[in-house]
């Protein structure tokens, strides 16, 4: 889905957004505040900064999560995180992050992101994100 | 304490940085042998990135401690491994495990224990960290973070291109009947696709974790402004698959073994990776030479 199409879908669904469940009961939602803070792993819905999903930890299944809307607070949108992310920011203080997608043969396809705090395009994994893993260090998992 | 840290660095350097000071003699670009589990090291010189990352993290930790912020150093800075290993290709993961693993873990992953985690809510920490990061980069020659960013971009572009090549052209043609045979075998095993008639692994939820991790959730930071928090280590957590996931994982593994599926996929992966490395040889030669030089500087720092 292109960026324009994503924006239209988002506006159309905004009314219903706040009544949807954002994540499973034991959800990882970062600091649950707008913006991408020190230590968080943040996925962005498009090239803007209004739609975001934050994590503290590794997550092997993005399918249970919704993107959040950044505003004066951080509320659930109607957009799935799974196969729907455009950018990532890795603000983990100690770990790199790998973003993964399972291809049609069952292989994990990985892209790596050092903890350089830069916002980076997911490239070939844009809209193909199944999971992310904190890695590259024994302290990370 | 410092002596202990230096000893650890020397040991790491001697293990992972053979030839750093005299230049690296391993083949690069199109001359690299494709060994599934060693692509990260052989093609991208991931071991050199591991070393430099460790050395710069040590330098940053010591620098921060000198600025009154010992948290990173005290949390323990340990050598990393596996930089740029995401193209270590050896066939699909679900087809590489044994039956016990497939039954117990399905398509999920246990979570390994993690160390202490440092979280800054202190602008002073952040400012010092930025300065220490620049200082560490300068000590290893000044372009480590530039080269890391460029290799990250190249790796990710190659990973995406590899996937494109696997899913199109002669690779897709070659693997289509292999995939179809696997799907037929899954059906013979009694599995049914989520959408009737769909003949993909995704439709049978092969590779998809559906279970949950057991054990305590990780500690949540308190985020008190002006403080630096250190979260305690997180113990290991076991993954428990759903019964359906476990059954699917066992069936998929049995079918893959029966058909030689992993080997067939891995063979095409290797061929496409070889082509891709050839197409990116100039950039790989440039970046691996630069990280080799930086690793040499890092090794000199360690060796004094």
From TrEMBL, chain A:
Residues 1-27 form the signal peptide. The keyword Signal applies. Keywords: Signal. It comes from the Bacteria. This is Peptidase inhibitor family I36. The lineage of its organism: Bacteria, Bacillati, Actinomycetota, Actinomycetes, Pseudonocardiales.
TrEMBL record, chain B:
The lineage of its organism: Bacteria, Bacillati, Actinomycetota, Actinomycetes, Pseudonocardiales. This is Uncharacterized protein. It comes from Actinokineospora iranica.
């Amino acid at each position: 889905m292109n960026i324009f199409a994503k924006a239209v879908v988002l506006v159309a669904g905004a009314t219903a957004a706040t009544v949807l469940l954002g994540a499973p009961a034991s959800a990882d939602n970062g600091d649950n505040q707008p913006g991408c803070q020190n230590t968080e792993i943040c996925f962005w819905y498009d090239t803007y900064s209004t739609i975001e999903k934050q994590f503290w930890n590794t997550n092997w299944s993005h399918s249970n999560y919704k993107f959040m809307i950044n505003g004066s607070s951080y509320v659930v949108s109607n957009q799935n995180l799974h196969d729907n992310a455009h950018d990532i920011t890795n603000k983990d203080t100690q770990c790199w992050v790998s973003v993964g997608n399972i291809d049609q043969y069952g292989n994990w396809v990985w892209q790596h992101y050092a903890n350089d705090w830069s916002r980076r395009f997911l490239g070939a994994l844009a809209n193909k994100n199944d999971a992310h893993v904190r890695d590259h260090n024994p302290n990370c998992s | 304490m410092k002596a202990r840290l230096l000893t650890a660095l020397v040991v790491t350097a001697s293990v992972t940085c053979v030839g750093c000071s005299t230049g690296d003699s391993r083949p690069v670009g199109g001359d690299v042998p494709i060994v599934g589990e060693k692509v990260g090291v052989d093609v991208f010189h991931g071991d050199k990135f591991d070393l430099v990352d460790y050395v710069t993290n040590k330098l940053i930790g010591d620098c921060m401690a000198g600025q009154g912020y010992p948290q990173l150093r005290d949390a323990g800075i340990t050598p990393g491994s596996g930089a740029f290993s995401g193209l270590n290709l050896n066939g699909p993961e679900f087809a590489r495990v044994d039956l016990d693993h497939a039954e117990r873990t399905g398509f999920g992953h246990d979570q390994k224990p993690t160390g202490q985690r440092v979280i800054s809510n202190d602008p002073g920490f952040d400012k010092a960290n930025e300065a220490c990061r620049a200082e560490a980069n300068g000590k290893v020659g000044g372009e480590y973070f530039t080269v890391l960013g460029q290799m990250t971009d190249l790796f990710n572009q190659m990973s995406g291109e590899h996937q494109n090549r696997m899913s199109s052209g002669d690779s897709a043609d070659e693997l289509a009947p292999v995939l179809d045979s696997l799907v037929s075998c899954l059906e013979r095993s009694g599995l049914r696709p989520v959408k009737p008639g769909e003949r993909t692994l995704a439709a049978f939820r092969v590779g998809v974790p559906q279970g949950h991790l057991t054990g305590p959730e990780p500690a949540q930071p308190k985020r008190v402004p002006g403080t630096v928090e250190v979260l305690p280590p997180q113990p290991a957590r076991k993954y428990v698959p759903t019964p359906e996931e476990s059954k699917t994982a066992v069936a998929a593994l049995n079918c893959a073994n029966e058909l030689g599926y992993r080997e067939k996929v891995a063979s095409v992966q290797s061929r496409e990776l070889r082509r891709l490395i050839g197409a990116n040889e100039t950039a790989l030669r440039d970046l691996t030479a630069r990280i080799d030089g930086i690793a040499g500087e890092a090794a000199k720092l360690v060796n004094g």
